[in-house]
Amino acid sequence: MPTKTPRICSCGRVVPAGQRCVCAVARKAASDADRPTASQRGYDADWRAARAKHLARFPSCVECGDPATLVDHIETIRKAPHRRLDPTNFASMCSTCHGKKTARFDGSFGRTVR
Ligand SMILES: [Zn+2]
Ligand SMILES: [Zn+2]
Questions:
Q1: Which of 22, 56, 60, 114 is the most exposed place for a label (fewest CB within 10 A)?
Q2: pLDDT at 51 (0 to 100)
């Protein structure tokens, strides 16, 4: 088997055989950073902690009284970003009622509910 020789990357660096140039690694890291993180979408550690606390205090669905599995924002984050972590804006819900509410809400804006 011939000895693998280092290659020259388009960026000018000498890259050992079988390895990726650091410029490719850096590019990938940059593109990962471009993607919105969970926290940028409004769901970060603070929200998870606030949600867990709310579920502990209000373990029943506000609609039907079943055990709640999630916390809904009464005013959506999009509508009221400043109330994202406001406990008075939280409503414990079971996934069934939340699904219904979400469908109703989306429909009310004239969007087609799929
Ligand atoms: Zn390179
Ligand atoms: Zn429910």
A1: 114
A2: 94
68 CA from centroid of ligand 2 (Å): 7
Evaluate whether 68 touches 61 at the Cβ level (below 8 Å).
yes
Q: Report which residue type is found at 110.
A: G
Looking at the CA of 15, name the nearest ligand.
1
CA of 26 to the centre of ligand 1 (A): 9
- Residues around ligand 1, an ion, CB closer than 5 A: 9, 11, 13, 21, 23
Ligand 2 center–CA 62 separation, angstroms: 7
CA distance 27 to 104: 42
Domain positions in the chain are 1-35, 45-108
- Confidence band (pLDDT; 50, 70, 90) for 44? confident
Q: What is the pTM of this model?
A: 0.55
For position 110, what pLDDT does the model report?
A: 47
